[in-house]
Amino acid sequence: MPTCEEIFNEMPNRFDAEAAGDWEAKVQYKIEGDGGGNWVVAVSGGAATVTAGEADDASATVETDVETWVGIAEGSVEPTTAFMTGKIRIQGNMADVMKSQSVFKKD
Q1: Is the CA virtual torsion 103, 18, 105, 11 positive or negative?
Q2: Is residue 106 part of a domain?
């Protein structure tokens, strides 16, 4: 099972610039629990970057726990279901969070 840090570190390699087009966003992720932390995923100029920490200017913030985040990354947890059942909380621009699901390739 990958760690949250490994998942976030791999995201730029999974970025699909063609799917993103001219979309630009900065999404803050707050992952709770052992092995969690805060990361910022920024999409701009046809590229994605990930940095540990927090951003005051994020368009959206996603909060969840380690188990849910790893499950989403591995494909065993459906993001929409996790949101509807309260396992994921989103503040800010929901459209940016939805778009982020389609611009990072899965295995």
Answers
A1: negative
A2: no
**How far is residue 10 from each of residues 48, 57, 84, measured CA to CA in Å?**
11, 23, 27
Number of domains in the chain: 1
End-to-end Cα distance, the chain: 14
CATH number at residue 12: 3.30.1050.10
Q: What pLDDT does 106 receive?
A: 79
Judged by DSSP in three states, 28 sits in strand
In a domain, 87, yes or no: yes
Whether pTM > 0.85 for this model: the answer is: yes
Q: Taking Cα atoms as reference points, which of 18, 66, 68 lies closest to residue 43?
A: 18
CA-derived radius of gyration, the chain: 13
Residue pLDDT, tens place only, 18-58 = 999 999 999 999 999 999 999 999 999 999 999 999 999 99
